[in-house]
Amino acid sequence: MKTNSASASVPASKSARAEKNSGLAHWMRAVQKEIVRAGDGFHADPVHDLRVALRRCRSMVDGLRAIDPDKSWKKMRRQATELFDSLGDLRDCQVLMEWVEQLGKPDDPVTQRLLAYAKQKETECKEHARAAVARFDQEQWERLTASLPRRAARLRPGSDAFKAIALEKWTDARMRESAALKTGSPAAFHRLRISVKKLRYVVENFLPDLHEQWGSDFKKVQDWLGEIHDLDVLRDTAITIGAYATDEETAHWNHILRTERDLRIERYKAKMVGEASLWKVWRAGLPSGPDARQASLGKLQAWSSFLESDQPHSRRVARLALQIHDGLAKVGVLEGNRQRSREMLRAAAIVHEVGRHEGGKGHHKATQKMVGELDRLVGWTRQEQSMIALIARYHRGALPSSAKLREVPLEQRKQTKLLSGILRLANAFDADRDGAIRRIAVSKQNEFILIQAEGLNPESALAETIAGARHLLEITCGIPVMVRTMPGTSRKPVRLSAK
After folding, report:
1. What are the pLDDT digits (tens) for 420-440?
2. Using H for helix, E for strand and C for coil, what is the string for the chain?
3. pTM, full prediction
4. CATH number for the domain running over 290-434
């Protein structure tokens, strides 16, 4: 029996028609169409279709908001949620009637009591639904339908950013399953159902190649979990309204509901438990190890692109910072896991300007707060994410003091300062935001580190900015740092001194 689970959309690669009938614009327009259909009597199928369209819109917003923090997404989700929730009780009544008619006999007193309750409740719920539809702001929805799909189009389906989000959802759903199977409680299964649904929608909406492989299995699993939820609601409703008049009626219906519920749990286990588990299939299709970290970097890159207007500057700073990092590693200045430090430096460079979105002079402080408040990045520890935020924060402004780094483990404080110093210097190399510094080479002399920059004019104001920015790197390395123009790019190499 098909209940209130949403049907899977046809993968976009199937045909041009599939592309037309998918995507945010399609489902936002579908909401407007289904509101009209549902409003004509609020019958079961139109109400179901309207909730499906609203659910699709909300699921897309949840994925897109994780990358694009524009406030319009929140407006759209709030509007969709208000209408969706207002139709929830009505849909529950209609699903309840479907189950009672399927499981009970027409002359059964419990069947009659449940149907009588549901029909009376349905009448009340239709009035609430009619009022909710009347409150729905059609004009605002129309404006959002015109603007939000254009923002969504900036993000490429199948990108690392969406793979990272899918991995986050997989991790959450997998964790929920343990509690559900261990306790068997309705609340635990409900939480599992919601988590699997969120994973399914990320894959369905943003990872078309994976959806083509997994779509049918996702639908089966979600249907089973949805039916378990329906049966739990039916059981609770029967108890709440006093539908059982005798011990025999109680035993009879408890047996029916338990049998139907256990059947679906066994179907779920057959697919989701063991060596051939779909959990393993799904996990194998998502990034792992270094690829998971790279996917999170892709998510950070996409997130920062919506917040920072000068992306070319951030890309140049990241490139120059990595050149300095690799040069210092080559001459033996860097210690520890160089690959991890390189990745953290790259991440910090990608996001170091996002605080400008908040306005004000202290954008570097705003950057630290914004990065620190992000959901945990898959593949990264929470401590590493905090270090990324700190490194980005100290690309300018006051130097990091021991008090400011008190939450960083002692063994990681020097690395945090060192990477901050590299980022600060790399940012200074592009202080004019014109890409004049094209390449950097690092070498080590007996008593100092030599950094040579292609395109540097030693008599420019930029040269003085760079000279001042090298101080944090110098004191952290414990060795003087000299910055010169690269041979062949200037006729006057000079030793730059900080003012």
Report:
1. 999 999 999 999 999 999 999
2. CCCCCCCCCCCCCCCHHHHHCCHHHHHHHHHHHHHHHHHCCCCHHHHHHHHHHHHHHHHHHHHHHCCCCCHHHHHHHHHHHHHHHHCHHHHHHHHHHHHHHHHCCCCCHHHHHHHHHHHHHHHHHHHHHHHHHHHCCHHHHHHHHHHHHHHHCCCCCCCHHHHHHHHHHHHHHHHHHHHHHHHCCHHHHHHHHHHHHHHHHHHHHHCHHHHHHHHHHHHHHHHHHHHHHHHHHHHHHHHHCCCCCCHHHHHHHHHHHHHHHHHHHHHHHHHHCCCCCHHHHHHHCCCCCHHHHHHHHHHHHHHHHHHCCCHHHHHHHHHHHHHHHHHHHHCCCCCCCHHHHHHHHHHHHHHCCHHHHHCCCCHHHHHHHHHHCCCCCCCCCHHHHHHHHHHHHCCCCCCCCCCCCCCCCHHHHHHHHHHHHHHHHHHHHCCCCCCCCCEEEEEECCCCEEEEEECCCCCCHHHHHHHHHCHHHHHHHCCCEEEEECCCCCCCCCCCCCC
3. 0.86
4. 1.10.3210.10
